[in-house]
Amino acid sequence: MSINVYIVRHGETYFNFLHRFQGWSDAPLTPKGIEHGLNAGKRLANIHFDGAYSSDLTRAIHTARYILKNNTAESPEEPTQLFDFREQFFGSFEGINGETVTTTLTAFKDTPFETYTNLITIYGMADAMDTIRQADPYHFAEDDEQWWTRVSRGFNDIRFRHKDGDNVLIVSHGTTIRGIAEKFGRHDFASEPVKNGAVMQLELDPHDAKIVRFNDDTTVF
Known about the structure:
It comes from Leuconostoc lactis. This protein is of the alpha/beta class. It has helices at residues 14-17, 31-43, 58-69, 98-106, 116-123, 125-135, 144-161, 174-183, 187-190, and strands spanning 3-9, 51-54, 80-81, 167-172, 199-204, 209-216.
C-alpha cells in the first residue's frame, strides 16, 4: 500500500507566456492559465482527495482552487499551503528571459547546449540546479542539495499527515516536478518540459516513490 499523490503543475502565468524564469517570483495566471486549472479539475473531478495542498506561491494556490472548484467527490474546498513544494529559487535569474539565462549558463559547461531542457538532458537535473547556483553572481539561487532538502521534507510531511490508500493533491511547479521525477529514478521524464496543468501521479511509500504517470494532461481519472 502507498499514498496516491497527484502533483499538478500550475496553470500558465504571464512569466510563462513571456518565457521568463519564474522561481519564487509570483506572476499571475493568464486566462489560459485559469483554464489549465479548471481543465485539470475536470479530469480529477471524480477523485476524493483526503488532502489538498499547494505551494505557497499565488499561481499554485489559485490553480489548486480552480481544480477543487470542479471536484465532485467531497474533497477539501481550499488547499493547504506548503512552502516546501515551491519552485527552485533561481536567485539573480528570477524574471530574466530564458534565452538570456541559457546563454549565461553555457559559459559554465564544456558541452554546448541551446536550451535549459538540453542542459538537463545532457547533465541531469541536479547538475542543472547546481549550475544555476554557480552562475548566480550573488549565489542566492538554490542548488540541488538545498532544493531537495526542502522538497523531501515536504514529502515527509505528506507521509506524516496521511495513511496508506489516501489520495493527495499537490499543486507545484515545472522545475520542481522535473527534479522530483529524476530523484525517483526517471531522468527521461526530467528531460521533458512539464505542461501547465499536467499531472504526475506517484505511489508514495515510506522511503521512496514510484511514478505511475508523468506530464499527463488528457487522462480523465
